[in-house]
């Protein structure tokens, strides 16, 4: 097996080409870093702690990049898809971009109509993270950190955040997200937002992929994709993937496709890691298991992708990928019956994910 290595490259130097909304980016270096273990490689950037590419063999040994994205970091600066990013301070939606905590009403920055999505206009996907640590060797990894200041996008309190990407097996990748509240209670719900197409990012739609979700309940939403507060069984609905099924078989029963939070079965038992999803592409033979300690899983079939020019000039369209985002429940700050995402000063938020890839 080739020696694993981690390299820096592709520094952004021409901010003049970017629109004025991001032209005031601090003068920190933004780079691309590669984690490599044999013929398994992952490229990330400290802009948004984004996963840029994941290259894997198929059942015949052919390599392909299975993560949607762009050719250059500069293209991510005005991206609205959240390709590969860490999203927060609170992932998913907050109704009315506001919530109450300990008697104080906090008004946030809306960026999807009157609601907040993925942390607002300048969420964690739109900032430069610091490269804190990186290591070569048998289990290469990189750690990014970010300090979110009190009042950023309206959220209370200073928050120290970190994410570590690590290759832990021949074809396994772990993601460790942590956050520590310094001085005020604050909601924290981080998510990793990679768009997966196991046949290759430029191979078309994922409707023939097989998926299994280990969740017997979900949280229904209104037309604005805000949870109603209910938790209902998947049985008898198009959301039932307790047994393996193709993504496309019942997708026409839904208005736009899948974009829903699942309540992971048997969670809340000391936050232990549990297998929550299985995804397989029949053409390439590639498969992915997803493990996490989080209580929820957003299943999203990239319904809003349309005419997005990605890597190599390939145009991504609707259902061109699937997102499997482990998370706390959406809008939990406004639903007391949902698991709390409030982190108190001195306490540490810990969110673990493990991707186990195979090909057969």
Note down, in words, how this protein is organized.
It is a single chain. Strands 11-12-13-14-29-23-22-17-20 form a nine-stranded antiparallel β-sheet, with no helix packed on it. A five-stranded antiparallel β-sheet has the order 1-2-3-4-5, with no helix packed on it. The protein is globular. The chain has no helices and 29 strands. It is an all-beta fold.
Topology:
Layout: E1 8-9, E2 32-37, E3 40-45, E4 50-57, E5 63-65, E6 85-87, E7 93-94, E8 98-101, E9 104-107, E10 116-117, E11 130-135, E12 141-148, E13 159-169, E14 172-181, E15 186-187, E16 191-193, E17 210-213, E18 217-219, E19 232-233, E20 245-246, E21 259-263, E22 274-280, E23 286-292, E24 296-300, E25 308-309, E26 315-316, E27 323-327, E28 342-343, E29 348-359
Spans of 5+ residues with little confidence (pLDDT < 50)? Answer: 1-26
- Biggest sheet: strand arrangement: 11-12-13-14-29-23-22-17-20
How many runs of DSSP E, i.e. beta strands?
A: 29
Task: Please state the structural category.
Answer: mainly beta
N/C terminus separation = 20 Å
Shape: globular
Mean pLDDT: 92
Encode the helix/strand succession as letters: EEEEEEEEEEEEEEEEEEEEEEEEEEEEE
**Strand residue percentage:** 35-45%
The oligomeric state of the chains shown is single chain
Q: What share of the residues lie within helices?
A: under 10%
Major sheet details: 9 strands, antiparallel
Radius of gyration: 19 Å
**Tally of DSSP helical segments:** 0
